[in-house]
């Protein structure tokens, strides 16, 4: 074998080595966390991280209290004529359809109408759907901060001598470590929501 040819091969091999090592060292493209979601992938969201609010028993709650649970958070009010009861009824169906995994679910209902939603009323409202559901009642100041932190819209709308509330209708879903992962659309069926939530459960195993 020609000595100069051997040296040329060796030189080319040495030059190629860093390229090979560099290619091996490159991180693979990040794969999407979820596939075929009916809801919204929120895994990259940098908001809706935590809250500090009183429950109906006067105990201050944060996300840390629900570590180990798949948490569903919905903002609403007890005099809501349709959106809120529909979302909570769906949450009941979701829990049932999850079977044994239903025990891993924790539903939190954050009132956007603390003026009328007393602790007693909120407690009874949760009992009407599922005794395990927890209602949180912020002060007006806490509500403004929490809604801002969670990018939730709410607005008081006069109706003659009374008022109603306009508000966002997404349900946020958190993994067992308290990280926001997806948002359920109000139009999703319980079956579609369960399929999405099972993907969050799979991440948490």
TrEMBL record:
Residues 1-22 form the signal peptide. PROSITE patterns: PROKAR_LIPOPROTEIN, THIOREDOXIN_2. The keyword Transmembrane helix does not apply. It comes from the Bacteria. Keywords: Copper, Disulfide bond, Metal-binding, Signal. Residues 42-202 form the Thioredoxin domain. Gene3D superfamilies: Glutaredoxin. One of its GO terms (molecular function) is metal ion binding. InterPro entries: SCO1/SenC, Thioredoxin-like_sf, Thioredoxin_domain. Pfam families: SCO1-SenC. Disulfide bonds join 80-84. Cu cation binds at residues 80, 84, 167. Belongs to the SCO1/2 family. This is SCO family protein. It comes from Alcaligenes faecalis.
């Amino acid at each position: 074998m020609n000595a100069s040819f051997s040296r040329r091969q060796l030189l080319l091999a040495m030059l190629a080595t860093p390229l090979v090592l560099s290619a091996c060292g490159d991180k693979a493209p990040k794969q999407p966390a979820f596939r075929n979601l009916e809801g919204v992938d929120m895994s990259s969201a940098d908001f809706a991280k935590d809250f500090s609010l009183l429950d109906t028993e006067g105990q201050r709650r944060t996300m840390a209290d629900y570590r180990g649970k798949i948490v569903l958070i919905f903002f609403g009010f007890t005099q809501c004529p349709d959106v809120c009861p529909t979302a909570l009824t769906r949450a009941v169906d979701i829990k049932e359809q999850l079977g044994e995994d239903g025990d891993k679910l924790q539903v939190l209902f954050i009132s956007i109408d603390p003026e009328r939603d007393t602790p007693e009323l909120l407690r009874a409202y949760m009992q009407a759907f599922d005794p395990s559901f927890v209602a949180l009642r912020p002060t007006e100041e806490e509500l403004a901060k929490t809604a801002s932190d969670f990018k939730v819209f709410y607005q008081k709308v006069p109706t003659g001598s009374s008022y109603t509330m306009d508000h966002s209708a997404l349900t946020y879903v958190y993994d067992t470590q308290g990280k926001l992962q997806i948002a359920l659309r109000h139009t999703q069926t319980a079956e579609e929501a369960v399929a999405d939530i099972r993907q969050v459960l799979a991440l948490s195993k």
